[in-house]
Input
Amino acid sequence: MNVALLLLYIIPVVLIVYSIQRADGTLRTGLTRAFEQFIILVPRLLVAMVAAAFIVRLIPEQIISNYLSDNSPWIAILVGTLTGLIIPAAPVVVFSMAASFANAGASTAGLVAFITAWTIFALHRVVIYEVPLLGGSFVRLRLLVAFPLPLLAGALVVIASSLLERLI
Output
């Protein structure tokens, strides 16, 4: 069992014990809220994971291995960045897609660029939230300034991997 998974089990237990000690209704409120979220999120997670699996299966593995592999890291970074820019999906879909890409032979640099681009640019968030709330001029400037970041993140993976190979 890895540390992250262990923390996922330990943190709720600690919070439950603390809320029991408070004896002010926090436990009941917290469990009610958790159940409500469970009912809302589990069906969405299941649908999103199935959708992610189908999306990746519809893309031939040859395309993934050609454009996202270690054979051409700079192309993988560019393709990963562009793919991350256009994927309008929730985290469960994006990370499921990234895992499927990895299983199909995608490089770490391409995956880092993909996830970084999605995190920074998620087109659906830009259109739904940023433009209406912050205005077009702000969004244009933010996107212009942030555009190199996924490319830089992927390049740093290539450089770090190269340095690690020399050290090991």
Observations:
- Residues 15 and 27 are 9 Å apart (CA to CA).
- The chain is about 85% helix and 0% strand.
- The radius of gyration is 20 Å.
